[in-house]
């Protein structure tokens, strides 16, 4: 039979696990939304959006979920931090120039979206 202390420890561990899983679900949803912003703004495919998001995070040394939060808030008029804006422009340009670009990307005139903050 399990003692009261063991049961309490097990309940505490399960509560912590549930809280961690809830944070993960919220973070995943935020990242998915940010990928949507990237593919819409950059005219990219979903897998390219994920790569761009990772690249921006790595090159700015900003956690992925923080980059995602900034990008999700950007269309609503929030300003992108300058380092994220610059890294986003570079990453989108590299994704468009990748040899496996979509037909739509190949037809474009090669201009990178300005990624300027919305006023």
UniProtKB/TrEMBL annotation:
User: Which SMART domains does the annotation name?
Assistant: ANTAR
Q: InterPro entries, alphabetically? A: ANTAR, CheY-like_superfamily, WH-like_DNA-bd_sf
Q: Where is this region: Disordered?
A: 96-119
Which Pfam families does its entry note?
ANTAR
Coiled-coil annotated residue ranges, if any? none
Show where the ANTAR domain sits. 11-72
Gene3D superfamilies on file: Winged helix-like DNA-binding domain superfamily/Winged helix DNA-binding domain
This entry's Gene Ontology molecular function terms read: RNA binding
Q: What is this protein called?
A: ANTAR domain-containing protein
Query: What species was this sequence derived from?
Result: Streptomyces fodineus
Upper lineage is: Bacteria, Bacillati, Actinomycetota, Actinomycetes, Kitasatosporales
